[in-house]
Every structure is written in C-alpha cells, then in structure tokens.
Amino acid sequence: MRDLTQDRGADLSRVRQSFRRGAQSYHDGAVVQTRIATALADLLAANADQPHLGRVFEFGCGTGHLTQAVGARFELGTLILNDLVPEMQAQVQGILRPGDQFLPGPIEEVHPEGSLDAILSASTVQWVPEIAFVLERLCAQLAAGGWLALSGFGRAQFLELEALGSNAAAPAYADAADWPNLLPHGMELVHLHQERIVLTFETPRDVLRHLRATGVNGRAERGWTRAQLRQFEAEYTGRFAVPGGVSLTYDPVWVLARKR
Ligand SMILES: C[S@@+](CC[C@H](N)C(=O)[O-])C[C@H]1O[C@@H](n2cnc3c(N)ncnc32)[C@H](O)[C@@H]1O
Fold first, then answer.
1. Is 206 within a domain?
2. Is 119 inside any structural domain?
3. Is 153 in the pocket of ligand 1 (CB under 6 A)?
C-alpha cells in the first residue's frame, strides 16, 4: 500500500518533470501568469510605503516573472529564490546578483535563513497541499511590518478540463474565501481579490498545446489514445465553444498580507 508521503513524492516528481520540460516555452507562453505576476507586483507597490525591500524570499520563482516585476518596482536588498526545479536557476541567473541565493527543492523542505522583509510567490501555492504549514513557518521569519504577497488559483481554475473529467488539476486550489483561514496568526490581510481570466483558443488541441507549453498539466498521469483524444476534442467543442474557438478559464486569487 502506498502511503501519503510516497504519493506526494510521486506527485512532486511529475510536477517537476512537467515544469522542467516546459521551462523554455513557459516564459513566453505563460501569458496569464505574466499578467498575474505583474498585477501582484503592482498591488505590493501600491500598498508598501517604501521604495526598498531588504531580504526578499520568493518560492516557485519559475523563470522569474514575479521576480522581474518586483525588481522593477523596488530596490531589493538580498534576493533568495526557490523553485522545485533546480534547472530554473539558469533561467533566473541573469537576475541574481552577488550575495543573492537560489535554493532548489520543494518549498515544504526548503529553509531560507534569517529574518525576511518580504515573502513572495506567484501561481505556485496551488501545487503545495501543506501551504498553511509552509506559510506559518515562513511568516515566523518575517520582520514586523514585513509583507506576504501571493497569488494562487481558485476552484474554477480550468473548469473546462475539470468538467471533462481531466485528472490534471493541481492539488490545492483555494478561493478568496479560503485565504483568511490559510494565513498564519499575526498576519493582517491587506488585500484579497479573485477574478477569472478566460482565454480563447481556436481548437481543444491548441488548449492542450498551451497547457503543455506552460507545464501546468503536471498531474496528468497518462497519454491518451487517438480515440480518447477525439472524444475529448468533440466534448470540449460541444460544451465550451465561444466565438473564435473554445474557452479556457483561469481563476487567479491575489493575497496581500502584512506582519503585525
Ligand atoms: C506556474 S509556475 C509560476 C512561476 C512564476 N512564479 C510565475 O509567476 O511565472 C509554478 C512554479 O512553481 C514551481 N513549484 C511547483 N511546486 C513547487 C513546490 N512544492 N516548491 C517549490 N516550487 C514549486 C514549479 O516548478 C513552477 O516553476
């Protein structure tokens, strides 16, 4: 019998493989994640009353969309970046300066050192089922007045795929209403916002290509036969046709909190 730890290990390795494969195409293909990261950086800049952030930790940095957006809006002291995929270090190497760090591995097992002034993460928390524990540990390292700026996805994420019985969903979708309970004690919620972004693709096959290019279908466990693919395409078109093609729904949630 498999235990939970084994299942999580298998999940992590699938997710790692999927994002590693998508690393090259991710940066350009992830149009929605780029918009989300930019909006998160704007949110932080609009609320923070300082031009400088001292020690900044970002988990799930990927190819650096959020890192760049925050770097464009603040003077940063030390930057500590993390991603599950060790190869992401090469993607963010151009952003790192002497003294900055990249810590590879699942955030559940990664421990940045010392006091932090900001904890950042865009489009990653949905991959971390233990996110409440992770945030409790990390936020304990935040200095008073330090910021937590996050985005994740709500339960309507990829509702089309869910409706068609896909098993590719991330394990921890959380709606805006869930976030007050996920935040550690001592964190004051400053902003919470959930708003769907719906993309149109010409065909369901283009949806699959988009998902593959952006690595977000990491939990799909098996390839499809031709017949299954045709059935998927027919059902997708039948249920989710929109002018110009078919829809794909993203359901981002933005969270900004401050340590009391
Ligand atoms: C959708 S991408 C977001 C990347 C970047 N933050 C952005 O906004 O474009 C999600 C990233 O989270 C990473 N990831 C997934 N599970 C993780 C975990 N448990 N710990 C750390 N990173 C993780 C993936 O490798 C991937 O690079």
1. no
2. yes
3. no
In a domain, 220, yes or no: no
pLDDT the model gives residue 3: 52
CATH number at residue 104: 3.40.50.150
From 57, 84, 87, 210, the mutation candidate for ligand 1 (largest count of ligand atoms within 8 A of CB) is 84
Residue 223 placed within a domain: no
pLDDT computed for residue 8 by the predictor:
84
| Long-range contacts formed by 36-40: CB under 8 A, 24+ apart | 36/122, 36/123, 36/151, 36/197, 36/252, 36/254, 37/65, 37/66, 37/69, 37/122, 37/123, 37/151, 38/65, 38/69, 39/151, 39/254, 40/66, 40/69, 40/120, 40/122, 40/149, 40/150, 40/151, 40/254
Q: Atom 9 in ligand 1: which residue has the minimum CA distance?
A: 65
Residue 106 CA to ligand 1 center (angstroms) comes to 9
Give pLDDT, residue 222.
58
Residues of the chain with pLDDT under 70: 1-4, 22, 217-222
